[in-house]
Amino acid sequence: MPDPILEIDHLSHEFAGGSGIHDINFQVCAGEFILLAGPNGSGKTTLIRHLNALERPSSGGIRLYGRPVTANLMLTRKTIGMVFQDADTQIVGDTVAEEVAFGLENLNTPRAQIREKVNQTLARINLSHLKDRNPATLSGGEKRRLAIAGILVMDPEIIVLDEPFANLDYPASRHLVETICRLNRDGQTIIVATHDVEEVITLASRLLILDDQGRLVRDGCPAELLGCLDRFGIREPCFSRMGYTAPPWQT
Amino acid sequence: MADLTLFSFNAGTTALHDLDVRVKTGLVCMLSMTLFFAGFTACLICFLALYPLIRSQGATLLHLILRLKGFLLLLIIMAAARAVTVPGEPVFSILDVEITRQGLAQGTLVAARFFLVMVIGMLFAVTTRPADLKSAAQWFLAPVPFIPEKRVGFMISLFLRFFPLILAQAGQTADAVNARCGGFRKNPVRRIRFLTLPLLKKTVMAADHLSLAMTARCYTENRTDPAFEPGGKERIFLIAGAGLCLGMILVSRESFWMIFWSSAKFWVDPVSDLLYSLRLQ
Questions:
Q1: Which domain holds residue B175?
Q2: How close is the nearest chain B Cα to the Cα of A89, in Å?
Q3: Prediction ipTM score
Q4: Which of B27, B112, B159, B163 could bond B241 through an S-S bridge, CB–CB 3.0 to 4.6 Å?
Q5: Sign of the four-CA dihedral B257, B258, B262, B263
Q6: CB burial readout B85-110, b (16+ within 10 A) else e
Q7: In this complex, is the C-beta atom of A107 within 8 Å of any C-beta atom belonging to chain B?
Q8: Quick check: is B280 in a domain?
Q9: How many domains does chain A have?
Q10: In terms of residue numbers, what domain contains A77?
Q11: Per-residue pLDDT at A107 exceeds 80
Protein backbone atom coordinates (compact mmCIF):
# COMPACT_ATOMS: atom_id res chain seq x y z
CA MET A 1 0.00 0.00 0.00
CA PRO A 2 1.43 3.44 -0.93
CA ASP A 3 2.18 6.02 1.75
CA PRO A 4 -0.95 8.00 2.65
CA ILE A 5 -1.20 11.66 1.65
CA LEU A 6 -3.59 12.45 4.45
CA GLU A 7 -4.00 10.83 7.87
CA ILE A 8 -7.01 11.60 10.04
CA ASP A 9 -6.16 10.59 13.57
CA HIS A 10 -8.82 10.39 16.33
CA LEU A 11 -10.41 13.60 15.07
CA SER A 12 -13.27 15.02 17.14
CA HIS A 13 -15.14 18.28 16.87
CA GLU A 14 -17.72 18.97 19.55
CA PHE A 15 -20.54 21.45 19.10
CA ALA A 16 -22.67 22.74 21.95
CA GLY A 17 -25.53 20.27 22.35
CA GLY A 18 -23.41 17.18 21.68
CA SER A 19 -23.42 17.13 17.88
CA GLY A 20 -20.26 17.16 15.77
CA ILE A 21 -17.86 14.40 14.80
CA HIS A 22 -16.30 11.89 17.15
CA ASP A 23 -13.06 9.92 17.00
CA ILE A 24 -12.70 9.76 13.23
CA ASN A 25 -9.79 7.70 11.87
CA PHE A 26 -8.93 7.06 8.24
CA GLN A 27 -6.20 7.60 5.69
CA VAL A 28 -6.29 8.88 2.12
CA CYS A 29 -3.87 7.52 -0.51
CA ALA A 30 -3.07 8.96 -3.93
CA GLY A 31 -5.55 8.19 -6.71
CA GLU A 32 -8.36 7.05 -4.42
CA PHE A 33 -12.01 7.95 -5.04
CA ILE A 34 -13.57 8.13 -1.60
CA LEU A 35 -17.29 8.52 -1.08
CA LEU A 36 -18.11 9.99 2.32
CA ALA A 37 -21.77 9.24 2.97
CA GLY A 38 -24.03 10.10 5.85
CA PRO A 39 -27.46 11.51 6.62
CA ASN A 40 -28.04 15.25 7.11
CA GLY A 41 -26.36 16.48 10.29
CA SER A 42 -23.91 13.59 10.48
CA GLY A 43 -20.92 15.94 10.25
CA LYS A 44 -19.77 15.41 6.66
CA THR A 45 -19.24 19.14 6.03
CA THR A 46 -17.54 19.60 9.40
CA LEU A 47 -15.17 16.73 8.63
CA ILE A 48 -14.18 17.97 5.19
CA ARG A 49 -13.67 21.49 6.49
CA HIS A 50 -11.13 20.00 8.90
CA LEU A 51 -9.27 18.45 5.97
CA ASN A 52 -8.66 21.96 4.65
CA ALA A 53 -7.83 23.35 8.13
CA LEU A 54 -10.85 25.64 8.00
CA GLU A 55 -11.88 24.38 11.46
CA ARG A 56 -9.88 23.58 14.59
CA PRO A 57 -10.56 20.15 16.18
CA SER A 58 -11.58 19.62 19.78
CA SER A 59 -9.17 16.68 19.88
CA GLY A 60 -7.12 14.59 17.49
CA GLY A 61 -5.56 15.90 14.33
CA ILE A 62 -4.91 15.61 10.62
CA ARG A 63 -1.52 15.12 9.02
CA LEU A 64 -0.66 15.98 5.44
CA TYR A 65 2.46 14.13 4.30
CA GLY A 66 3.18 13.41 7.97
CA ARG A 67 2.93 17.05 9.15
CA PRO A 68 -0.08 18.69 10.85
CA VAL A 69 -2.32 20.48 8.34
CA THR A 70 -2.08 23.63 10.45
CA ALA A 71 1.74 23.73 10.14
CA ASN A 72 1.63 25.28 6.67
CA LEU A 73 -1.85 26.52 5.83
CA MET A 74 -0.88 27.71 2.35
CA LEU A 75 0.50 24.27 1.44
CA THR A 76 -2.52 22.53 2.99
CA ARG A 77 -5.02 24.62 1.04
CA LYS A 78 -3.04 24.30 -2.17
CA THR A 79 -2.79 20.52 -1.74
CA ILE A 80 -6.39 19.91 -0.67
CA GLY A 81 -8.88 21.78 -2.87
CA MET A 82 -12.39 22.31 -1.51
CA VAL A 83 -15.49 22.68 -3.67
CA PHE A 84 -18.34 23.96 -1.52
CA GLN A 85 -22.00 23.03 -1.78
CA ASP A 86 -23.29 26.45 -2.80
CA ALA A 87 -21.41 27.53 -5.92
CA ASP A 88 -23.07 30.96 -5.92
CA THR A 89 -21.38 32.05 -2.71
CA GLN A 90 -18.06 30.53 -3.76
CA ILE A 91 -17.64 32.26 -7.12
CA VAL A 92 -15.94 35.65 -6.77
CA GLY A 93 -14.87 36.49 -10.33
CA ASP A 94 -16.68 38.73 -12.82
CA THR A 95 -15.96 36.34 -15.65
CA VAL A 96 -15.33 32.61 -15.85
CA ALA A 97 -11.63 33.16 -16.63
CA GLU A 98 -11.22 35.60 -13.77
CA GLU A 99 -12.88 33.18 -11.36
CA VAL A 100 -10.48 30.40 -12.33
CA ALA A 101 -7.53 32.79 -11.96
CA PHE A 102 -8.47 33.77 -8.38
CA GLY A 103 -6.54 30.97 -6.64
CA LEU A 104 -3.42 31.49 -8.74
CA GLU A 105 -3.48 35.24 -8.04
CA ASN A 106 -3.54 34.40 -4.32
CA LEU A 107 -0.46 32.26 -4.84
CA ASN A 108 1.22 35.28 -6.48
CA THR A 109 1.71 33.44 -9.76
CA PRO A 110 3.07 35.60 -12.63
CA ARG A 111 0.33 36.92 -14.92
CA ALA A 112 1.56 35.12 -18.07
CA GLN A 113 1.57 31.79 -16.25
CA ILE A 114 -1.92 32.49 -14.86
CA ARG A 115 -3.24 33.06 -18.38
CA GLU A 116 -1.72 29.83 -19.65
CA LYS A 117 -2.94 27.70 -16.72
CA VAL A 118 -6.44 29.19 -16.83
CA ASN A 119 -6.75 28.31 -20.52
CA GLN A 120 -5.49 24.78 -19.90
CA THR A 121 -7.85 24.22 -16.99
CA LEU A 122 -10.88 25.59 -18.81
CA ALA A 123 -10.12 23.27 -21.72
CA ARG A 124 -9.78 20.35 -19.31
CA ILE A 125 -13.20 21.03 -17.76
CA ASN A 126 -14.81 21.89 -21.14
CA LEU A 127 -15.55 25.49 -20.21
CA SER A 128 -13.31 27.27 -22.73
CA HIS A 129 -16.31 28.47 -24.75
CA LEU A 130 -17.66 30.27 -21.65
CA LYS A 131 -14.38 31.99 -20.79
CA ASP A 132 -15.70 35.57 -20.96
CA ARG A 133 -19.18 34.86 -19.60
CA ASN A 134 -20.43 36.29 -16.32
CA PRO A 135 -20.58 33.33 -13.88
CA ALA A 136 -24.01 34.50 -12.69
CA THR A 137 -25.43 33.62 -16.12
CA LEU A 138 -24.21 29.99 -16.04
CA SER A 139 -26.42 27.01 -15.33
CA GLY A 140 -26.16 25.14 -12.01
CA GLY A 141 -24.04 22.38 -13.54
CA GLU A 142 -21.72 24.84 -15.28
CA LYS A 143 -21.28 26.76 -12.02
CA ARG A 144 -20.36 23.54 -10.23
CA ARG A 145 -17.82 22.70 -12.94
CA LEU A 146 -16.48 26.24 -12.75
CA ALA A 147 -15.99 25.82 -8.99
CA ILE A 148 -14.02 22.63 -9.72
CA ALA A 149 -11.94 24.47 -12.33
CA GLY A 150 -11.18 27.19 -9.76
CA ILE A 151 -9.69 24.50 -7.51
CA LEU A 152 -8.11 22.37 -10.23
CA VAL A 153 -6.04 25.26 -11.55
CA MET A 154 -4.09 25.26 -8.27
CA ASP A 155 -2.89 21.68 -8.94
CA PRO A 156 -4.25 20.11 -5.75
CA GLU A 157 -3.39 16.53 -4.77
CA ILE A 158 -6.88 15.95 -3.41
CA ILE A 159 -10.18 17.50 -4.49
CA VAL A 160 -12.93 17.45 -1.88
CA LEU A 161 -16.49 18.06 -3.11
CA ASP A 162 -19.30 18.82 -0.66
CA GLU A 163 -22.70 17.63 -1.94
CA PRO A 164 -21.73 18.25 -5.58
CA PHE A 165 -25.04 16.99 -6.99
CA ALA A 166 -27.34 19.10 -4.80
CA ASN A 167 -29.94 21.02 -6.90
CA LEU A 168 -28.65 19.65 -10.21
CA ASP A 169 -30.87 18.11 -12.87
CA TYR A 170 -30.07 14.79 -14.51
CA PRO A 171 -28.01 16.09 -17.49
CA ALA A 172 -25.99 18.42 -15.24
CA SER A 173 -25.39 15.60 -12.72
CA ARG A 174 -24.33 13.30 -15.50
CA HIS A 175 -21.93 15.87 -16.93
CA LEU A 176 -20.48 16.46 -13.47
CA VAL A 177 -20.08 12.73 -12.87
CA GLU A 178 -18.20 12.45 -16.15
CA THR A 179 -15.93 15.34 -15.14
CA ILE A 180 -15.17 13.86 -11.71
CA CYS A 181 -14.65 10.42 -13.22
CA ARG A 182 -12.22 11.79 -15.82
CA LEU A 183 -10.25 13.65 -13.17
CA ASN A 184 -9.95 10.48 -11.08
CA ARG A 185 -8.88 8.49 -14.15
CA ASP A 186 -6.13 11.10 -14.70
CA GLY A 187 -4.82 10.27 -11.22
CA GLN A 188 -6.56 12.94 -9.15
CA THR A 189 -7.55 11.89 -5.62
CA ILE A 190 -11.24 12.62 -5.06
CA ILE A 191 -13.36 12.79 -1.91
CA VAL A 192 -17.10 13.32 -2.42
CA ALA A 193 -19.30 14.03 0.60
CA THR A 194 -22.98 13.32 -0.05
CA HIS A 195 -26.16 12.03 1.52
CA ASP A 196 -27.31 10.55 -1.80
CA VAL A 197 -24.84 8.00 -3.11
CA GLU A 198 -26.81 7.03 -6.24
CA GLU A 199 -24.73 9.03 -8.75
CA VAL A 200 -21.21 8.01 -7.82
CA ILE A 201 -21.26 4.87 -5.74
CA THR A 202 -20.16 2.66 -8.60
CA LEU A 203 -17.24 4.96 -9.38
CA ALA A 204 -15.90 5.16 -5.83
CA SER A 205 -13.05 2.93 -4.75
CA ARG A 206 -13.92 3.33 -1.09
CA LEU A 207 -17.00 4.17 0.95
CA LEU A 208 -16.92 5.83 4.36
CA ILE A 209 -20.19 5.98 6.28
CA LEU A 210 -20.88 8.47 9.06
CA ASP A 211 -23.86 7.80 11.30
CA ASP A 212 -26.16 10.47 12.70
CA GLN A 213 -23.97 10.71 15.81
CA GLY A 214 -20.97 11.83 13.74
CA ARG A 215 -19.05 8.55 14.10
CA LEU A 216 -17.29 6.73 11.28
CA VAL A 217 -19.14 3.43 11.33
CA ARG A 218 -18.02 1.80 8.07
CA ASP A 219 -14.93 2.07 5.87
CA GLY A 220 -14.69 -0.35 2.97
CA CYS A 221 -15.45 -1.35 -0.58
CA PRO A 222 -18.71 0.26 -1.83
CA ALA A 223 -20.01 -2.98 -3.37
CA GLU A 224 -19.75 -4.73 -0.01
CA LEU A 225 -21.43 -1.92 1.94
CA LEU A 226 -24.44 -1.36 -0.37
CA GLY A 227 -26.70 -3.52 1.76
CA CYS A 228 -26.10 -1.65 5.01
CA LEU A 229 -26.70 1.90 3.73
CA ASP A 230 -30.37 2.05 4.74
CA ARG A 231 -29.46 1.14 8.32
CA PHE A 232 -27.48 4.39 8.62
CA GLY A 233 -30.12 6.65 7.08
CA ILE A 234 -28.65 6.66 3.55
CA ARG A 235 -30.86 5.62 0.63
CA GLU A 236 -29.66 2.45 -1.04
CA PRO A 237 -29.23 3.01 -4.81
CA CYS A 238 -32.21 1.88 -6.90
CA PHE A 239 -30.20 -0.57 -8.99
CA SER A 240 -28.97 -2.36 -5.87
CA ARG A 241 -32.40 -2.32 -4.19
CA MET A 242 -33.98 -3.86 -7.28
CA GLY A 243 -31.20 -6.36 -7.80
CA TYR A 244 -29.87 -4.86 -11.04
CA THR A 245 -26.33 -3.97 -12.04
CA ALA A 246 -25.21 -0.33 -12.15
CA PRO A 247 -26.92 1.86 -14.85
CA PRO A 248 -24.76 2.55 -17.95
CA TRP A 249 -24.13 6.26 -17.19
CA GLN A 250 -22.45 5.32 -13.97
CA THR A 251 -20.06 2.78 -15.46
CA MET B 1 -28.56 50.06 -28.95
CA ALA B 2 -31.27 47.94 -27.41
CA ASP B 3 -28.53 46.38 -25.33
CA LEU B 4 -27.22 49.66 -23.96
CA THR B 5 -28.36 49.59 -20.37
CA LEU B 6 -27.60 52.04 -17.61
CA PHE B 7 -24.45 51.28 -15.62
CA SER B 8 -23.94 47.71 -16.73
CA PHE B 9 -21.10 46.42 -18.85
CA ASN B 10 -21.84 45.39 -22.44
CA ALA B 11 -19.14 43.29 -24.05
CA GLY B 12 -17.79 44.79 -27.29
CA THR B 13 -14.75 45.63 -29.37
CA THR B 14 -15.14 49.40 -29.82
CA ALA B 15 -12.31 51.87 -29.24
CA LEU B 16 -13.79 52.73 -25.85
CA HIS B 17 -13.85 49.06 -24.87
CA ASP B 18 -10.17 48.71 -25.80
CA LEU B 19 -9.10 51.89 -24.03
CA ASP B 20 -6.97 51.43 -20.89
CA VAL B 21 -9.25 51.81 -17.91
CA ARG B 22 -6.87 54.26 -16.19
CA VAL B 23 -7.00 56.62 -19.18
CA LYS B 24 -10.77 56.20 -19.33
CA THR B 25 -11.09 57.08 -15.63
CA GLY B 26 -8.83 60.10 -16.09
CA LEU B 27 -10.88 61.33 -19.06
CA VAL B 28 -14.14 60.90 -17.13
CA CYS B 29 -12.73 62.98 -14.25
CA MET B 30 -11.36 65.67 -16.58
CA LEU B 31 -14.59 66.03 -18.56
CA SER B 32 -16.82 65.96 -15.47
CA MET B 33 -14.77 68.70 -13.81
CA THR B 34 -14.72 70.81 -16.97
CA LEU B 35 -18.50 70.51 -17.25
CA PHE B 36 -18.67 72.17 -13.84
CA PHE B 37 -17.54 75.43 -15.53
CA ALA B 38 -19.23 74.87 -18.88
CA GLY B 39 -21.70 77.27 -20.46
CA PHE B 40 -24.27 76.40 -23.15
CA THR B 41 -21.77 76.52 -26.04
CA ALA B 42 -19.29 74.32 -24.15
CA CYS B 43 -22.07 71.83 -23.32
CA LEU B 44 -23.03 71.70 -27.00
CA ILE B 45 -19.39 71.13 -28.01
CA CYS B 46 -19.10 68.37 -25.40
CA PHE B 47 -22.29 66.68 -26.64
CA LEU B 48 -21.14 66.87 -30.27
CA ALA B 49 -17.82 65.33 -29.29
CA LEU B 50 -19.51 62.57 -27.28
CA TYR B 51 -22.14 61.75 -29.87
CA PRO B 52 -19.88 59.66 -32.16
CA LEU B 53 -18.87 57.65 -29.09
CA ILE B 54 -22.52 57.14 -28.20
CA ARG B 55 -23.17 56.03 -31.78
CA SER B 56 -20.21 53.66 -31.63
CA GLN B 57 -22.07 51.85 -28.83
CA GLY B 58 -25.04 51.46 -31.17
CA ALA B 59 -27.13 54.17 -29.47
CA THR B 60 -29.02 57.14 -30.92
CA LEU B 61 -30.17 60.33 -29.21
CA LEU B 62 -33.73 59.00 -29.06
CA HIS B 63 -32.62 55.76 -27.41
CA LEU B 64 -30.55 57.73 -24.95
CA ILE B 65 -33.52 59.90 -24.00
CA LEU B 66 -35.72 56.84 -23.63
CA ARG B 67 -33.18 55.10 -21.43
CA LEU B 68 -32.66 58.16 -19.26
CA LYS B 69 -36.31 59.23 -19.10
CA GLY B 70 -36.55 58.84 -15.31
CA PHE B 71 -33.42 60.86 -14.83
CA LEU B 72 -34.58 63.46 -17.37
CA LEU B 73 -37.75 63.96 -15.35
CA LEU B 74 -35.60 64.70 -12.33
CA LEU B 75 -33.59 67.21 -14.38
CA ILE B 76 -36.77 68.94 -15.56
CA ILE B 77 -37.95 69.26 -11.94
CA MET B 78 -34.55 70.64 -10.99
CA ALA B 79 -34.59 73.17 -13.86
CA ALA B 80 -38.15 74.20 -12.96
CA ALA B 81 -37.13 74.76 -9.34
CA ARG B 82 -34.31 77.03 -10.50
CA ALA B 83 -36.63 78.88 -12.89
CA VAL B 84 -38.94 79.94 -10.04
CA THR B 85 -36.34 80.56 -7.34
CA VAL B 86 -33.65 82.59 -9.15
CA PRO B 87 -34.52 86.32 -9.11
CA GLY B 88 -34.41 88.27 -12.38
CA GLU B 89 -36.43 89.49 -15.31
CA PRO B 90 -39.84 87.75 -15.26
CA VAL B 91 -40.89 85.91 -18.44
CA PHE B 92 -44.36 84.95 -17.22
CA SER B 93 -46.10 84.16 -13.94
CA ILE B 94 -48.48 81.44 -12.82
CA LEU B 95 -50.47 81.86 -9.59
CA ASP B 96 -48.16 84.64 -8.38
CA VAL B 97 -45.09 82.46 -9.03
CA GLU B 98 -42.70 84.27 -11.35
CA ILE B 99 -40.58 82.40 -13.82
CA THR B 100 -37.48 84.42 -14.62
CA ARG B 101 -35.31 84.47 -17.71
CA GLN B 102 -32.16 84.08 -15.58
CA GLY B 103 -33.75 81.19 -13.63
CA LEU B 104 -34.72 79.40 -16.83
CA ALA B 105 -31.23 79.86 -18.25
CA GLN B 106 -29.50 78.66 -15.09
CA GLY B 107 -31.87 75.71 -14.65
CA THR B 108 -31.43 74.58 -18.25
CA LEU B 109 -27.65 74.92 -18.01
CA VAL B 110 -27.45 72.87 -14.80
CA ALA B 111 -29.73 70.22 -16.32
CA ALA B 112 -27.57 70.08 -19.46
CA ARG B 113 -24.42 69.67 -17.37
CA PHE B 114 -25.96 66.86 -15.30
CA PHE B 115 -27.26 65.16 -18.44
CA LEU B 116 -23.78 65.20 -20.00
CA VAL B 117 -22.17 63.88 -16.80
CA MET B 118 -24.76 61.09 -16.84
CA VAL B 119 -23.99 60.28 -20.48
CA ILE B 120 -20.24 60.20 -19.76
CA GLY B 121 -20.83 57.93 -16.75
CA MET B 122 -23.03 55.67 -18.85
CA LEU B 123 -20.44 55.39 -21.61
CA PHE B 124 -17.83 54.54 -18.99
CA ALA B 125 -20.02 51.90 -17.30
CA VAL B 126 -21.10 50.31 -20.58
CA THR B 127 -17.55 49.92 -21.87
CA THR B 128 -15.69 49.02 -18.66
CA ARG B 129 -15.60 45.56 -17.12
CA PRO B 130 -16.11 45.57 -13.32
CA ALA B 131 -12.79 43.73 -12.99
CA ASP B 132 -11.01 46.59 -14.77
CA LEU B 133 -12.73 49.05 -12.50
CA LYS B 134 -11.31 47.17 -9.51
CA SER B 135 -7.85 47.22 -11.08
CA ALA B 136 -8.08 50.95 -11.76
CA ALA B 137 -9.17 51.68 -8.17
CA GLN B 138 -6.24 49.60 -6.93
CA TRP B 139 -3.81 51.42 -9.24
CA PHE B 140 -5.04 54.91 -8.32
CA LEU B 141 -4.99 54.13 -4.59
CA ALA B 142 -1.53 52.51 -4.62
CA PRO B 143 0.42 55.79 -3.98
CA VAL B 144 -1.96 56.85 -1.18
CA PRO B 145 -0.39 56.02 2.20
CA PHE B 146 -2.27 53.99 4.84
CA ILE B 147 -4.84 52.68 2.36
CA PRO B 148 -4.69 48.92 1.64
CA GLU B 149 -5.36 49.35 -2.09
CA LYS B 150 -5.55 45.61 -2.82
CA ARG B 151 -8.17 45.10 -0.12
CA VAL B 152 -10.17 48.11 -1.32
CA GLY B 153 -9.97 46.87 -4.93
CA PHE B 154 -11.14 43.43 -3.93
CA MET B 155 -13.98 44.89 -1.83
CA ILE B 156 -15.15 46.88 -4.86
CA SER B 157 -15.19 43.75 -6.99
CA LEU B 158 -17.02 41.77 -4.30
CA PHE B 159 -19.61 44.53 -3.97
CA LEU B 160 -20.17 44.62 -7.73
CA ARG B 161 -20.35 40.82 -7.80
CA PHE B 162 -22.66 40.30 -4.83
CA PHE B 163 -24.95 43.31 -4.96
CA PRO B 164 -27.18 41.73 -7.67
CA LEU B 165 -27.21 38.49 -5.65
CA ILE B 166 -28.39 40.33 -2.54
CA LEU B 167 -31.09 42.05 -4.61
CA ALA B 168 -32.17 38.67 -6.00
CA GLN B 169 -32.31 37.26 -2.47
CA ALA B 170 -34.38 40.24 -1.35
CA GLY B 171 -36.80 39.51 -4.22
CA GLN B 172 -37.02 35.83 -3.23
CA THR B 173 -37.64 36.70 0.42
CA ALA B 174 -40.34 39.21 -0.56
CA ASP B 175 -41.99 36.55 -2.77
CA ALA B 176 -41.88 34.03 0.08
CA VAL B 177 -43.46 36.56 2.46
CA ASN B 178 -46.13 37.57 -0.07
CA ALA B 179 -46.94 33.93 -0.86
CA ARG B 180 -48.08 33.60 2.75
CA CYS B 181 -50.14 36.82 2.60
CA GLY B 182 -47.39 38.86 4.32
CA GLY B 183 -48.05 41.61 1.79
CA PHE B 184 -51.52 42.22 3.28
CA ARG B 185 -50.11 43.23 6.63
CA LYS B 186 -50.82 46.88 7.35
CA ASN B 187 -48.18 47.35 10.03
CA PRO B 188 -45.08 48.65 8.18
CA VAL B 189 -42.76 47.72 11.05
CA ARG B 190 -43.84 44.07 10.91
CA ARG B 191 -43.62 44.09 7.12
CA ILE B 192 -40.06 45.41 7.25
CA ARG B 193 -39.18 42.98 10.04
CA PHE B 194 -40.32 39.94 8.06
CA LEU B 195 -38.39 41.10 5.01
CA THR B 196 -35.18 42.52 6.46
CA LEU B 197 -34.37 39.99 9.20
CA PRO B 198 -34.43 36.92 6.93
CA LEU B 199 -32.57 38.86 4.25
CA LEU B 200 -29.94 39.99 6.75
CA LYS B 201 -29.55 36.42 8.01
CA LYS B 202 -29.16 35.08 4.47
CA THR B 203 -26.65 37.80 3.58
CA VAL B 204 -24.54 37.19 6.69
CA MET B 205 -24.56 33.43 6.04
CA ALA B 206 -23.60 33.98 2.39
CA ALA B 207 -20.77 36.26 3.54
CA ASP B 208 -19.61 33.54 5.95
CA HIS B 209 -19.62 30.93 3.17
CA LEU B 210 -17.79 33.31 0.85
CA SER B 211 -15.15 34.01 3.47
CA LEU B 212 -14.59 30.25 3.99
CA ALA B 213 -14.42 29.63 0.24
CA MET B 214 -11.87 32.44 -0.18
CA THR B 215 -9.79 31.14 2.74
CA ALA B 216 -9.88 27.65 1.21
CA ARG B 217 -8.37 29.12 -1.96
CA CYS B 218 -5.47 30.74 -0.06
CA TYR B 219 -6.84 34.31 -0.19
CA THR B 220 -4.18 36.83 0.71
CA GLU B 221 -3.74 40.56 0.15
CA ASN B 222 -0.33 39.94 -1.36
CA ARG B 223 -1.80 38.83 -4.68
CA THR B 224 -0.70 39.02 -8.29
CA ASP B 225 -1.14 42.62 -9.46
CA PRO B 226 -3.86 43.33 -12.03
CA ALA B 227 -2.83 43.42 -15.66
CA PHE B 228 -3.67 46.43 -17.81
CA GLU B 229 -3.97 45.89 -21.53
CA PRO B 230 -3.71 49.21 -23.39
CA GLY B 231 -5.47 49.20 -26.74
CA GLY B 232 -2.87 51.53 -28.35
CA LYS B 233 -5.12 54.59 -28.78
CA GLU B 234 -4.63 55.95 -25.27
CA ARG B 235 -2.42 58.87 -26.38
CA ILE B 236 -4.91 59.95 -29.06
CA PHE B 237 -7.81 59.83 -26.59
CA LEU B 238 -5.83 61.72 -23.95
CA ILE B 239 -4.82 64.49 -26.38
CA ALA B 240 -8.35 64.70 -27.80
CA GLY B 241 -9.84 64.73 -24.29
CA ALA B 242 -7.44 67.44 -23.09
CA GLY B 243 -8.15 69.48 -26.24
CA LEU B 244 -11.88 69.16 -25.71
CA CYS B 245 -11.59 70.27 -22.08
CA LEU B 246 -9.39 73.21 -23.05
CA GLY B 247 -11.81 74.22 -25.80
CA MET B 248 -14.74 74.01 -23.38
CA ILE B 249 -12.90 76.15 -20.83
CA LEU B 250 -11.99 78.71 -23.51
CA VAL B 251 -15.57 79.15 -24.75
CA SER B 252 -16.88 79.44 -21.19
CA ARG B 253 -13.92 81.39 -19.78
CA GLU B 254 -16.18 83.92 -18.04
CA SER B 255 -17.84 81.35 -15.82
CA PHE B 256 -14.53 79.52 -15.49
CA TRP B 257 -12.74 82.58 -14.07
CA MET B 258 -15.73 83.48 -11.94
CA ILE B 259 -15.79 80.04 -10.31
CA PHE B 260 -11.99 79.91 -10.19
CA TRP B 261 -11.73 83.25 -8.32
CA SER B 262 -14.60 82.47 -5.97
CA SER B 263 -12.95 79.11 -5.12
CA ALA B 264 -9.60 80.82 -4.69
CA LYS B 265 -11.24 83.41 -2.45
CA PHE B 266 -12.78 80.59 -0.40
CA TRP B 267 -9.30 79.23 0.37
CA VAL B 268 -7.24 82.45 0.37
CA ASP B 269 -9.47 84.58 2.64
CA PRO B 270 -9.26 82.41 5.77
CA VAL B 271 -5.48 82.05 5.31
CA SER B 272 -4.95 85.82 4.92
CA ASP B 273 -7.21 86.45 7.95
CA LEU B 274 -5.13 84.02 9.95
CA LEU B 275 -1.87 85.65 8.84
CA TYR B 276 -3.27 89.10 9.65
CA SER B 277 -4.34 88.04 13.15
CA LEU B 278 -0.92 86.44 13.74
CA ARG B 279 0.76 89.69 12.68
CA LEU B 280 -1.40 91.66 15.12
CA GLN B 281 -0.29 89.42 17.95
A1: 129-231
A2: 5
A3: 0.83
A4: B27
A5: negative
A6: ebeeeeeeeeeeebbbeebbbbbbbe
A7: yes
A8: no
A9: 1
A10: 6-244
A11: yes
